[in-house]
Amino acid sequence: MIYLGILIFNWLEEIIKKKSIVFPMLCLLYLAWLGGAPDPVTTLDYASYEANYNSMFSLTYNSRFEWAYLSLAKMAYLSGMTYEQFRLILVFGIFIILLVVVRRFTNNMAFFVGTFAMFPFFNEIVQIRSFAMYTLILLAASFLIHVNKRNIIISALIIFLSAGFHSSGYFYFIFIAIRLLMHKHIKINSIIIMVSLISSVALMLTGSTSVGQNIAKIIGMLNKNTNATENILSNFVGGGSALTTILSMIALYTLLVILSKKMEVHIYKLTENNSYIAGKVESLMSLIYSGMLSLPLLLISDQYQRFPRFGLETVIIMAALYFEHNIRIFDRLKGMLISLVFVLILSVIFYGIPNSQMAQSIPFLAHLKF
Fold it and tell me: Name one Pfam family in it (predicted).
């Protein structure tokens, strides 16, 4: 019931526009508790993470996990923590960073929390390594609100750290390149959309297995971890969702990129081209465009759906920034209803509602069932 209250009251607060920080912050911390202390039986991947944690110092241990996650896990284990305690602290740490990052982009926490709690919250608290990775990517993006050499270096170092939680973090070095192009006022939106769609069609026509194998080899060399390479080959190459589901993801993401571009234009008008706000918008759009470039990877494996999902998380922050500067209640209400429709559609597709294991675990993760 608390979970439903979070949805209702954050959305009501967004309509009233009180700009409260305390209530959304407490709600986000409650979500952190839901993700950090879930039921081990009904939570996907929990048993795998726990088994890995408990066997870290065995003679036969050989992990597929990345160095930053393993370093924290080993420190926790040597400190005498159980996996339950380690997970709770890790997830709270991730959510605290997320709170800081969202606040750096917008004061409109209520919209972000109310929307994020519906989608993609449940995906993220199951896949905690990739959630940690993308939260750090958002942190890196927040440093490039202002573009200078110091912030570029900090952003690059944070992206490197993010890859220590999940190898897919390496992909986001492309974000820095896109951000620098946008900083130079080079119009790249049409080019990125065309490159993404043409690459998707090419992979559909020519096959994607060899591309996936090459990606696995590159990541294996970067990580120097043969188990990580084998994991990518087994889970990220071939197989996955039906083509209709993948095409739906591509179509929806493309549509949301176009809507994000429209929000960008409106924010500039509403803020009279304020340079600081423009920096926020350009940094967020650079991440959204990065997600656009990842869409062809869906044709290699549906495991790569984490990239567009992360891009959609960025769209939520962009929408929160847009509603923050749109003071007309009618416009906010209309926009929120449209947002709600999109979130429900995205939830059906990405959660696999109603029949997937992920969908069936949601009532337990939200404490609607015990």
Answer: EpsG
Whether the Cβ atoms of residue 219 and residue 212 lie closer than 8 Å to each other: no
**Structural domain of 9:** 1-366
How far is C-alpha 291 from the geometric centre of its chain's CA atoms? 10
Query: For residues 6 and 19, what is the distance between their CA atoms, to the nearest angstrom?
Result: 15
User: How many domains are contained in the chain?
Assistant: 1
- Contact 339/30 with Cβ under 8 angstroms? no
From 234, 216, 213, select the one nearest 225 (Cα to Cα): 216
- In degrees rounded to 5, what are phi and psi of residue 367? 60, 35
As a dihedral over the C-alpha atoms of residue 244, residue 250, residue 252, residue 253, rounded to 10 degrees, the angle is 160
| Residues across the chain | 370
What pLDDT is stored for residue 214 in this prediction?
60
Which position has the token pair 């709170």? 99
Q: Is the bond preceding residue 120 a cis peptide, omega within 30 degrees?
A: yes
CB within 8 Å of 73: residues ≥ 6 apart: 52, 53, 56, 65, 86
DSSP assigned state of 82: -
pLDDT along the chain (370 residues), means of 10: 91 78 94 95 91 90 89 97 98 98 95 95 95 98 98 98 95 97 90 85 68 57 56 51 80 92 90 89 97 88 87 96 83 84 91 86 87
Tell me the C-alpha distance between 350 and 138, whole Å.
Answer: 21
d(CA 261, CA 256): 8
- Give the pLDDT of residue 273: 76
